[in-house]
Amino acid sequence: MSEQNDRHDRNDQPENPLRKELPAEVPAAPPEAGGTAQGQPGQAQTGRQRLVKGLWPPRFTRAQLIVALLLFGLGFGLAVQVASNSDTDSALRGARQEDLVRILDELDSRTQRLEDEKQGLEKQRSELQSSSDQAAEARKQTAEKEKQLGILAGTVAAEGPGITMTIEDTKGTVQADMLLDAIQELRAAGAEAIQVNGVRVVAGTYFTGSDKTVSVDGNKINAPYRFKVIGKPQDLEPALNIPGGVVQTLEKEQATVTVERSDKIIVDALRQGKRPDYARLSSQ
């Protein structure tokens, strides 16, 4: 009896007002074919799609742009260097056997000259250290060094073995820079004194040219150009005749080049010694 009264009391209680305000539950509509329901996450992307989305569109920072420019410059420099080396290697591969032997002999000669100069300096040092009269020995070496410097400066005449190179230029195609290249090649081969058409060549010598004229240190010279060179003939002549060297370059310009060896070449064109305006002997 008591249970029936309790059940009756619960049925008589009014319904919860919050429940009345909630709408009735509506079952979700099934997703349409070929798509996903609204509010549902999309299908999972593949690894390739995520990679493409991360790479495109590209996003560069300032630091990345600077690094890219530096890498581009480095790559360009390496490419130029490789191309230059390839051209040199191609020229050597295309050279004849006797030309390669001549180039190797020239390199050996330059190495030997440097070694001889080193031994000479070491000998002078030993003589100064072991001489009983170091003052007299020092004066002797100073006098000899003065003569050598006079030859290099062009203030004294010189004689010795060497070559005479004559360039005939009937077409007027020989330029000043070609003559300067000849001077540089001779110096590299060990030339100790040079004069061109009566003008002494020194360390500061320069060549200029205009309207088919050539000047040496401001002195106009005309063809034929005659070089008197003191040095070892066995080194000087091959240096001029190497493949692509002075003789071949001048012959391409339709000039005629003759080189003669001699046991005695006299270089007597002199230069006036110039006193420096600012440099003075140091006390140290």
- The unreliable regions are 33-41
User: What is the average of the pLDDT values?
Assistant: 78
Q: How do the strands line up in the largest sheet?
A: 3-2-7-1-8
How many E strands? 8
The tally of helices reads: 9
> What is the H/E string?
HHHHHHEHEEEEEEHHE
Structural class designation: alpha+beta
Radius of gyration: 45 Å
Major sheet details: 5 strands, antiparallel
Task: Give a structural overview.
- This protein is of the alpha+beta class and 284 residues long.
- Helix content is 49%, strand content 17%.
- The protein is built from nine helices and eight strands.
- The protein has helices spanning 2-12, 17-21, 47-55, 62-94, 97-130, 134-153, 176-188, 233-240, 246-252, and strands spanning 158-168, 193-196, 199-201, 207-210, 213-216, 219-221, 225-230, 256-267.
- The strands form two sheets. A five-stranded antiparallel β-sheet has the order 3-2-7-1-8. A three-stranded antiparallel β-sheet has the order 4-5-6, covered by helices on one side.
- A hairpin with a 2-residue loop joins β2 (193-196) and β3 (199-201).
- α5 runs antiparallel to α6 (134-153).
- The protein is extended, with a radius of gyration of 45 Å.
- The termini are far apart.
- The relative contact order is 0.11.
- Mean pLDDT is 78; it is low at 33-41.
